[in-house]
Amino acid sequence: MSVRRFEGVAESLDDFGRGIIRHEGRTYFVKDLLPGERALLETDFAYGRLKEVRLIERKTESPHRVAPLCSHYPLCGGCQIMHLSYSEQLRYKREKVQALLHKFAGIDFPVRETLGMSTPSRYRNKVQKPIRLVHGRPEIGFYQEGTHRLIPALDCPAESSLSARISASVLRLIRHFRWPVYDEDRRTGLLRHLLVKTNRKEDEALVTLVVTEEFLPGRKEFARRLMEQVPEVKGVVLNINPRDTNVILGKKDVLVYGYPQVRDAIFGKTFLVSTQSFYQTNSRQIEALYGLAIEFAAASKEDVVLDAYCGTGTIGLSIADRAKAIVGVEIVPDAVRDAVRNARENGIRNARFVTADCTRYLLETKERFDVVVLDPPRKGATREFLLALLAMKPKRIVYVSCDPVTLARDLSLLKKEYQVRDVVPVDMFPHTLHVETVVSLVRNGPEAEGESPEVAHA
């Protein structure tokens, strides 16, 4: 193995937030290095191949470098670009979306500036924290990046203050009850994870303990004490996950005490969110994200709207007042039950929800939709779904994406029949590499020839 040292200047950041340095015909990707910064690097080569590149010393510092908010950064790996100023994070995410649309879809439509937050902290309404033994004592925290070594941390700058208080109380109580903590190597113990969901006002929270079996001695007393210590906790649930897996939640939920949902409000409507149901993690940016979806859908009282991958029905129900009818499709039964309750809670009568795989539903349905809104998981929509969507020929499509790579892949197929009218990144996860994107698509034809004010690019 040969070791070499050289100095280089970072040109830009790659998709993983690493500085890109080119030297003697090679490209190096360096963590914790910002564009314009000069650094001394050390490389290890074996058999002519690069094994590792290490940052030895930064010789210069970018004016956009800032002190991270979190004392655990970058060990825990939850945030990747906290050392970059927030205004530059927003610019980086816009450029990332623009570059990926060009690279994977051949689309060069001008991407709008990223919609950011006025205060990019305390934004998460949902946190999942592993519970593990550290030096023989139960601890709650986060895994070190790329490992399952726990970093004890009851408070994260991204989570709500209420969630941090709940974490501290839960830790005291599980130590008091002396419940056995799950050991991944031996596959023994009961406690695996703590899941906390809070609402935007931080006056309601749902606490879920992920355990290996349903019998947890003293569980009701635990719930009562927790709710006494933190009155905002409205319910305690056990999620049963006995499997040897990295998937956090099991399929079965058991209500221990209180209510099985937390209530939140979007555009004046009330939404119920349970342990298993999907709900946008950044409550303070939901209206910005969904406001774009409503604008781009441009639904009228003659339009039937499909809300695909609908979760708890938040997007569809937010559009319902403007549309003739809403049909929401979601594969998770708990989420569909919450969506039905949400419609009932808000007195919405023109929405119905179907428990089904979205691809299968679209392939088999005889219904026709004027507008389709899709908010698929990170892996994007399936090719079969997109082909069925093209065959259905809705007037407009609104694509809400959490991964610009799969978004670009899917748009490369949809662009055959649809024009991109607007692309807006939305920062739902400050200090991370993640970026949500809302795209407006209009079918080629008479409607695409003139720009509608609701969907025109500003």
Structure description:
By secondary structure, the protein is α+β, with helices and mostly antiparallel strands. It is 25% helix and 31% strand. The strands form five sheets. It has a seven-stranded mixed sheet with strand order 9-8-7-10-11-12-13. It has a seven-stranded mixed sheet with strand order 18-17-16-19-20-22-21, sandwiched between helices. α1 (86-105) runs parallel beside α9, α2 packs antiparallel against α3 and α7 (358-364) runs parallel beside α8. The chain starts with a strand and ends in a 9-residue tail after the last helix.
Summary tags:
458 residues, alpha+beta, 7-stranded mixed sheet, globular, disordered C terminus
The stretches of 5 or more residues where confidence is low (pLDDT under 50) are 449-458
Number of strands: 22
Task: Report the total helices.
Answer: 10
**Shape annotation:** globular
- Measured between the Cα atoms of the first and last residue, the distance is 56 Å
Largest sheet: 7 strands, mixed
Q: Helix proportion of residues, in percent? A: 10-25%
Overall radius of gyration: 24 Å
β-strand percent reads: 25-35%
- Strand order across the biggest sheet? 9-8-7-10-11-12-13
Q: Mean of the pLDDT scores?
A: 94
Which structural category fits the helices and strands? Answer: alpha+beta
